[in-house]
């Protein structure tokens, strides 16, 4: 079933309406070179063969990758996409290579792939395989390769379905073999792992000269790979996607595995036809690499794969992301000091109810506020804020713990409600709601989501979900919530016309609740029932009326009848929109009185409207008489008898004239010289018989 985003009321934004701010590159854009950004070509993407290269530089700290040290990667970024983000910390997974590369290869975080260290004791690769294994499952004719320096890349993380998996003792040998693979005409998709930057980080730290030299060497090796791609004889007929990333960073003095900013920060640099030069995004994570590579090959992100990542160009910013230009530096918090990362100003259409919120406390957390992960996760390390990996860019936060850390306060109970815009409903009886929810408990607190409806409906708010009010910081909830709500009806059986989400949180120096990517949608609006109207409620027999209708099937064949005694009025075909407009002529012989116009649909169902039929024009409004006639004998000398009633001339006499069947009408002589009269009588008899037949058939049809 199709689902469409629901529009908010006048002051509110449509969910997801905030643009990306970057236009997509032309379909025929060529990959970047190490010297300069690529330029678009007139060729279309469909004329080129998709190819992919993903290079992982182990332990590369993005903040140390200056342009002078890494000209190749800098050129790739200039000609395409740059996105930085943070990895989770403990207990979800430490910043080490096992979970880092598993996340990049599979497109899911550690709770799904189950790799939380470098021992690989309980991996879930059978359910969440690496992206090259998915390529082999879906496109077995493609040639796939994994070439790396760290052994688990080739032996464990990427599975045996990959065509070629090779491990070499140093990055020089790895690079030589990658270049050879890229020169081979059959090569389609390659993953590369370079390890020596991580070694330099362990030896001397990310602030050392040795570390910078290792980054410079790795950048040159990536340049060799890019040149090998450009020198392919078939390069102009190929559409290459090149991605460079890292599994974690390093501390200035050496080492990783913790949750500091430098250890958690990673990046995605992507260059290809899907990305406009100079694109910078704040909502892309390393989980998005796998689905983006698969999409480049024409493989959609299938729901049954259950990936945490998304195709990068399918990521839709939400209302909270529009606040990034308004973010401020810390007012009291020391951890994210200097970062532009918070505001308490709600997006257009949203509101915050702080009527029960005490005064004082940390200003950054006074009621619901909006933050980036760089800011939120660094206010105090080791309290699980680092595990908010499902949020993107700017998200909403209620944090009673951080608020209570600052005195004075006018009370101890943090109590604030975040309210969404009132989204207009389309008449569908169901509502789809989804949002990221990262909820941690550390003391008395409560949280709930309510759906509030328009006041005119008289429908009470509905409790969509409530979270535990006690526990530990071992997050009871950290996922994307999805609900299908059967909308309630009021006493009159009517559905609400608007719905708003209320996120209520209260806590006494407890923990936090982070919410993001609030999406509200409905299935297609129910089709309006078929209906029709007549241009008049009364019409004279023999005259025409106009029938107009809507809600019928496209090109549906319709028949029309006048009842009670069914008389066909014709047929017509609805247009492509299911509308109909046609002229109907009421039979001249239709009896005066109350009738029904019936539309008979293609499936046999019927619609009807009342219609009053009056006498045909020119009859003076006379009421038909009653009588019996006995025609004269064959020689015209027989005696006719008749009685007539009516407002016209006297009834027939006994003088040999036939009795008139209708008062006031001229008597028809029964002489042999007046054969037309006999023909008319015979016609009347036949017509009466036809009427009886039609009436009997009609009686068998339910009205």
Topology of this structure?
Elements: E1 3-5, E2 49-57, H1 71-78, E3 81-86, H2 97-106, H3 110-113, H4 131-138, E4 144-148, H5 151-157, E5 164-167, H6 171-183, E6 189-194, H7 196-204, H8 209-230, E7 238-245, H9 261-264, E8 265-271, E9 279-281, H10 289-296, E10 342-343, E11 351-353, E12 369-372, H11 373-376, E13 394-399, H12 400-404, E14 414-419, E15 423-424, E16 430-440, E17 445-453, E18 462-467, E19 477-486, E20 498-507, E21 512-523, E22 531-534, E23 538-540, E24 544-550, E25 557-563, E26 567-573, E27 580-585, E28 593-600, E29 606-614, H13 675-699
Parallel strand pairs: 2-6, 2-7, 3-9, 4-5, 4-6, 23-29
Antiparallel strand pairs: 1-21, 3-8, 7-8, 10-12, 11-14, 12-13, 13-21, 14-20, 15-20, 16-19, 16-21, 17-18, 17-20, 22-24, 24-27, 25-26, 25-28, 28-29
Helix pairs in contact: 6-8, 7-8
Signal peptide: 1-23
Region (Disordered): 609-665
Transmembrane segments: 675-694
